[in-house]
Fold this protein.
Amino acid sequence: MNNTTNKNTKFQRFLASDFFYHFKRDKLAIISSIIFLILILLAILSPLVAPYNPYDLQILDIMDSELPPVWQQGGDPRFLLGTDDQGRDLWSTILYGMRVSLMIGILAVLLQGVIGITIGLVAGYVGGRTDNLLMRIADVQLSFSTLMVAIIILAIVQSAFGSDAFNQWAMVILILIIGLAEWPQIARTVRSSVLAEKEKEYVDAAKVMGFSPIRIMFKHILPNCLSPIFVISTVQIANAIITEASLSFLGLGMPVTEPSLGSLISIGKQYLFSGSWWITLIPGAFLILLVIVINLLGDFLRDTFNPKLYKD
Amino acid sequence: MSLLEIENLTIEFPNRHGTEVAVDKVSLSVNAGEILGLVGESGAGKSTIGNGIVQLLSKPGRVAAGKVTLNGEVISGLQGESIRKIRGSKIGFIFQDPMTSLNPLFTIENQMVETIINCLGVSYKEALERSIELLTKVGIPEPEVRIKQYPHQFSGGMRQRVVIAIALSGEPDLIIADEPTTALDVSVQDQILKLIQDLCTDLQVGCILVTHDMGVIANVTNRVAVLYRGKLVEIGETKDVLGNPQHPYTQSLISAVPLAGKKVDRFPLVETIESIESGLKSIDVTTHWLGQSSQHHNTDDLLIIKDLNLSFLTQDAFFKKNRKRLQATDNVSFSVKQGESFGLVGESGSGKSTIARMIAGLQQPDSGSIVYDGVELINNPDKEKVKSVRQRLQMIFQNPYSSLNSRMKIKDIIAEPILYHHLAKTNEVEGIVGDLLDHVGLGRKSGVKYPHEFSGGQRQRISIARALATRPRLLICDEPTSALDVSVQAQILNLLKDLQDELGLTMLFISHDLPVIRQMCDRVAIMRQGKILELQQTEDLFEHPKDKYTRELLDLMPRFDDLTHDLNANSHV
């Protein structure tokens, strides 16, 4: 009891927490989070870190196109990982592309979160017909594959507004589509934890105190449901990044001028058999690394937040 | 020589904050045919001793030191196969919850015969015969038929009998019974304890009975060992220990047990158990915010309940006539006078909690009326009026571990209703919260902590402080102490009594525990299957019960006081 008094700052309390204790003992989690942090930093700081700006068309030289990485024969020391078909430095393009991928992933999951949490809370707390209605909507939504919905909407938008307008708004549209298509995942998780929480007596106590349902839902129940939301959000970010990459690979995602990891892989596809494997494989490796690391962190969070799994 | 000897048994649970010693150098012995009671509060290490003997400690617990000898053979430190042989064949185990200690996927025959073949190495036929014999012995009617059935076809008491039969099937020398009757109703508890007692004398089996219930200890054990925080504080013949306790802890533990036979004003000697903060600022209720209630009606009956009905749908169907309903409350009427303590008693499923929930507004009745402080609460069109009246009606819940929001600080939990209903000026709230915390014996400094940093009793104090924050006049206590140890229960009951005296609170006290009711209530209603069977002054009800069911309940109540009182009388002579 006495030594808790000098552990007052939030950081010190974090260092003493069970969460950090388990984290220190999990090598996989440490390695994953280090890689994840490096990737995030590189992505955020890409304008500073990257040797070239791949969006700047003026510095592109078509003579530099399809150069292999430096360790290959014919590599150019200016381009560490080689260049793509337009002569863009692949390393810089990957950094910028990762930024696009992460941004779409995170913002899409935020959107999913807002919709999913609200609907899940209301369905779980109110119950009865409202619950039935909302969850059936979620079931219907889930019975369409995300990719299918996305492809149809993207195709319609592209043909309706023309590809110029589409290219301009591609990122926003992708975020909206992925966010709207995947909310049932979060809504279901939230609903099931709300169902468990609302039976607890603190909710009854709040009702007897005369608090409004909105206050009980958001102030009392929601904070107690945060850990599963946190866990599923991590996994959903990885999923969103993959979805975006798949759409871009199919040519329905980010435009060539503003490539994400997926569109880079797609660009390289046609050069794969002519020997320029790096345009596809190197961005592909980064994509895999990013997704694996996020998934591993999600697994770690799930194990730590679930007290039923005993860890010594 | 005795059957089981335990010498200096020490059991540790190492964790990252250090090593927690759960059992500290305990030495005791059990003779054949004798029942030794292990009594203590939660966390005293009584179950851990039982598990430690047969090395069933959950990780990371370990036996750090000490020697356990069974029939002259050292069994501590045995590994793997050899300890497994001892369990089952030499030591039988009876667990707390009969609902979960049998495998629901196998018939009783599967489970018993398997154990017998494993332990005794006999043929299937012999094992089957022996199983039937054992089931007869533990009092299962028609054992040849019942042995083919699955656990869900047995009632709780019957299942516990089967568990006992399985524990006996390896012809053990020692039985460890870990709270064998805690999950059962009183009437069944009585039979199971008698059964264990008879079997121990008949078969000359030693028994360690782990329990927290002093009534059980007084009724069935020959000797008793009292544990306190892992240490053995007292051991001896049951009547000596209970009648003339030597150790101060045993004394306070015994004084904390609510007596069924007479009413005392306060529980004495309980302050040593969970120390409450001393030197707290006491508040003068007459001038303090807490004592100033905005409106005062001087109605005689604060709460009037008339013809309250509620039924639950137990089986839904498309057609109305096929739907099955359970009448949870059946035309219940009673009234609670200003300032009194009204008790509602009944077994589980009698509808007593449902009534509390309806009064608190957590459930809507099908029909009937609830009038509180002169205002009808059911179907009243004046919603604002109902809302303002309801504020002065608060509830304390059974489970202190789930009744507080674990993500909020204590001071925020208590301040929330005051701020939400604008009951005090914002700049005064912090002071009021501090005063409330002082008043329930926690101290204002504890406001910055989170609920998980408190024990069960302390959390119940927080619940009480929160309920007081809306300045209620009626406090509904739904089994407020049934999740707590007796000594902590005594402290909470003392606190409730004090608050009632100071603030003139009216209380609706719901419990299944008759001795507690006797200590707390002025009038009592006995409930069964949604009906009120009898409503009387407490003293009259306990001395001259009119209804047959009431008499039955009173007879089955574990009589702890009779024994000690006789003994007290004897020791004084």
